[in-house]
Amino acid sequence: MIEKKMEKIACVASRSPRAQKGLEALAAACPLVPVAEADVIIALGGDGFLLSTVHEQVDTGLPIYGMNRGTIGFLLNEFHVDGLLERLNSAQSQTLNPLLMTATNVAGQRFTALAFNEVALLRYSQQSANIRVLINGKERLDNLVCDGIMVATPAGSTAYNLSARGPIIPLGSNVLALTPVSPFRPRRWNGALLPHSVTVEFEILNPKRRPVSASADSFEVREVAHITVAEDHSRPARILFDPDHSLEERIFSEQFVN
């Protein structure tokens, strides 16, 4: 439960007609304030828009309550404006600690970015990627031949990670998923579950002949040579969910979908 009573609401919406209509309905039902004056931010759109809102607003420290005006809405609550303050103040808060990606490209340039879903490496030529994998400085795979590999958070385990046949991770399990994309060698390696405290390193072998991109959610770096990934506890995000529609329950239920 959220301790501080929320009364001042800010709202952001995607450009889709559904989201803009929702914004109009919300503004007509209750007064809205700028983010700088708010106790909570409502995000209207789809899962992608909520994720971009989390990135944009993480430094405000404000909780974010998403309402679905998109398609799937895995991270979102149902949209309706009746009893909104009561819903906000009875919502459950889920803290998400992002991954910090540090990527160095072949020119020696260094980039950092946060990922609340996953850090993913992907080849973008006809050549397969050759990647050396180290965990806490110890080599675990000397040469993973693949289309790519990712480190996924529990919240992101039902996204790209799941489509790559990675495991669904319950919240609070304090593990990350290390999941390959179309691995060729070693043939029987299907990934690993890692303690959330580890530092993962990827070294791209022959990065000019076998170019690889690295992305932290929507932020992408091309022609990478070296990448480190570690959980960052200094910039957590707080996402709000209706009690009967919690993220933990959705992740649990996703494992029993026919």
Protein described:
The protein is an alpha+beta fold and 258 residues long. It has 2 domains: 9-96 and 236-254, Rossmann fold, CATH 3.40.50; 99-231, Probable inorganic polyphosphate/atp-NAD kinase, domain 2 (Tumour Suppressor Smad4, Sandwich). Helix content is 17%, strand content 38%. It contains 5 helices and 17 strands. It has helices spanning 17-29, 47-57, 84-90, 160-163, 247-254; strands at 9-13, 40-45, 64-68, 92-96, 99-105, 110-115, 118-123, 129-135, 138-146, 148-152, 175-181, 192-195, 199-204, 212-216, 219-221, 224-231, 237-241. The strands form 3 sheets. The protein has a 6-stranded antiparallel beta sheet, with no helix packed on it. A 6-stranded antiparallel beta sheet has the order 12-11-10-7-14-15, with no helix packed on it. The protein starts with 8 loop residues before the first strand and ends with a helix.
Structure summary:
With 258 residues, the chain is of the alpha+beta class.
Number of separate helices? 5
Spatial shape: elongated
Highest CATH level, the class of the largest domain = Mainly Beta
Percent in strands: 35-45%
> How helical, in percent, are the residues?
10-25%
Cα distance, first to last residue?
Answer: 32 Å
Number of strands: 17
Low-confidence stretches: none
CATH topology of the largest domain: Tumour Suppressor Smad4
| Gross CATH architecture of the largest domain | Sandwich
Mean pLDDT: 92
The CATH homologous superfamily of the largest domain is termed: Probable inorganic polyphosphate/atp-NAD kinase, domain 2
Radius of gyration: 20 Å
Order of helices and strands: EHEHEHEEEEEEEHEEEEEEEH
Structural class: alpha+beta
Largest sheet, in brief, is: 6 strands, antiparallel
The side-by-side strand order for the widest beta sheet comes to: 6-5-16-13-8-9
Overall domain count: 2
